[in-house]
From TrEMBL:
Subcellular location: Cell membrane
Entries under PANTHER family matching the protein: ARSENICAL-RESISTANCE PROTEIN 3 (PTHR43057:SF1), ARSENITE EFFLUX TRANSPORTER (PTHR43057)
Biased composition (Polar residues): 34-44
Composition-biased stretches (Low complexity): 10-21
Main location: membrane
The name this protein goes by in its record: Probable transporter
Family label: Belongs to the arsenical resistance-3 (ACR3) (TC 2.A.59) family.
Keyword annotations of the record: Arsenical resistance, Cell membrane, Membrane, Transmembrane, Transmembrane helix, Transport
Its membrane topology: Multi-pass membrane protein
InterPro entries named in the record: Arsenical-R_Acr3 (IPR004706), BilAc:Na_symport/Acr3 (IPR002657), Na+/solute_symporter_sf (IPR038770)
Regions that span the bilayer: 98-117, 129-148, 169-192, 198-217, 229-255, 267-290, 302-323, 343-363, 375-400, 406-429
Any one Gene Ontology molecular-function term assigned to this protein's record: arsenite transmembrane transporter activity
Length: 460
């Protein structure tokens, strides 16, 4: 999902500049101070790796023990001093900060339009593209376009550079494409056994792995933006290949519900249209603007105006969906609110389990390959979903008036506040956990040795 906080700008080199002034676009791979003596790759320039007291390209001063990084600027430190929760909220742009409110308003506005505007549903459904109305097709494609323009595809070859990144990719693939979908499947059946339509919609949400909003949560919780961006690129490609077969597997085979036999070709075509077209448009837009106007113009001028289109299109899409389903929603408020339950449980369980797993790996094998930043990257990548794609596919396959589309639409309303809270939880817990006991033991031994040497010198 797109956001105003994803509007990228090159980070300044001065450690004194306020981090809030610059919004760095995520780039796939950098070598942090605890990884390797290799130089840091940032925006096609080569610089020395940051020292423990120097901020990296994300404006973070890395913790020597693999814990929560510190923010660079005095302004951000002042914000943090007012409380971690307030600092998290201030880290969001105003659009992101009010996104849940905007979604609620869009839902209410849609219901009001559908209920009281004469012939609203009939007029909104005019025009047809593979069973989806023309206004909705525009909204579904436009809301994905800015998201996929912000990903740094030119950095993709660097993913082969380090062993650490391969570890993260393997863990991410297992969490995102095996554990995550099965967890959502189990929660959907456990909490919605009697609501077949809504259950299928929730399952479709679980199959859509997050490819953009995760970068916002990662930035707020001070995760590694470069590793996060690589995972986003990989998930973007895998969703085109895997979403359709997994949807058939989970709905037709595992759930084995004769009332919902989805056709592979229908899902594949929907994914190709609502993910393939925006992906192609995003790649072309990115390289055209970068090639013609340069990187500075792209970050400072283009993205601040182009990026918010995604949120506008999301709200526009929600208004249309709720306008077309106004009476249906008013008659089924109970099932609508019950759909919140599996989504909230999924975000909480998947995030907590992943964060705990990476912490355990960090304690056991050291911070060099793991640490707090990797825990943030993996937890938010596994614990969030690409609800835009789920909405698009459910509308295309089941229809805009379906319960499946309605269930998918509830996704962003739940995800934004839950993961915002978890961003604060990550920093709160991360500062209180030990991330590399081997390093701490080594430091204690060095300290004891120095003390022994000092005592020996005194005795002499």
């Amino acid at each position: 999902m797109s956001s105003s906080t994803l509007q990228g700008q090159p980070a300044p080199t001065s450690a004194a500049a306020p981090a809030s002034t610059y919004h760095k676009e995520v780039s796939p791979l950098h070598h942090t101070s605890h990884q390797s003596p290799a130089s840091t790759i940032v925006d096609d320039t080569t610089t020395a790796p940051p020292s423990p007291s120097t901020a990296n390209e994300d404006g973070l001063i890395l913790d020597s023990s693999g814990g929560v990084p510190k923010l660079r600027s005095a302004l951000q430190d002042a914000r943090d001093s007012t409380g971690a929760a307030k600092g998290v909220l201030l880290s969001l742009g105003w659009l992101d900060r009010l996104l849940s409110l905007f979604i609620i308003i869009a839902m209410i506005l849609g219901v009001v339009i559908g209920e009281f505007a004469p012939n609203a549903a009939q007029n909104l459904s005019k025009g047809n593209f593979r069973g989806v109305s023309a206004p909705l097709v525009v909204g579904l494609i436009v809301m994905m376009w800015p998201i996929l323009t912000k990903v740094q595809y030119e950095r993709l070859p660097q993913m082969f550079a380090t062993k650490r990144l391969w570890y993260q990719l393997v863990v991410s693939l297992v969490l995102n494409w095996v554990l995550g979908p099965f967890l959502m499947l189990g929660l959907a059946w456990a909490t919605l056994p009697d609501l077949d339509d809504y259950r299928v919609g929730v399952i479709m949400v679980g199959l859509a792995r997050c490819i953009a909003m995760v970068m916002i949560w990662n930035k707020i919780a001070r995760g590694d933006s470069n590793t996060c961006a690589i995972i986003v690129i990989v998930n973007s490609v895998l969703q085109i290949v895997l979403y359709a077969p997994l949807a058939v597997l989970f709905v037709n085979v595992i759930s084995n519900d004769d009332g919902f036999r989805i056709d592979y070709s229908d899902v594949a075509i929907a994914v190709a249209i609502y993910l393939g077209i925006p992906l192609a448009a995003g790649v072309l837009t990115r390289f055209f603007v970068l090639g013609v106007f340069g990187r500075d113009f792209f970050h400072r001028r283009f993205l601040p105006f182009f990026g918010p289109l995604s949120l506008i299109a999301l709200l526009y899409t929600i208004i249309i969906i709720f306008a077309e389903q106004a009476q249906h929603i008013l008659d089924n408020l109970g099932p609508v609110f019950r759909t919140f339950v599996p989504l909230v449980l999924y975000f909480a369980l998947m995030w907590t389990g992943t964060f705990a797993l990476i912490w355990w790996l960090s304690v056991r094998y050291g911070k060099t390959e793991w640490g707090y930043q990797m825990a943030v990257v993996q937890a938010f990548t596994a614990g969030s979903n690409n609800f835009e794609l789920a909405i698009a596919v459910c509308v295309a396959v089941f229809g805009v008036g379906s319960d499946q589309a309605l269930a998918a639409t509830i996704g962003p309303l739940v995800e934004v506040p839950v993961l915002l809270v978890l961003s604060w939880v990550a920093m709160f817990v991360g500062k209180r956990l030990k991330w590399d006991r081997g390093l701490e033991a080594s430091q204690r031994r060095v300290k004891q040795r120095k003390q022994q040497e000092a005592v020996a010198d005194l005795e002499k």
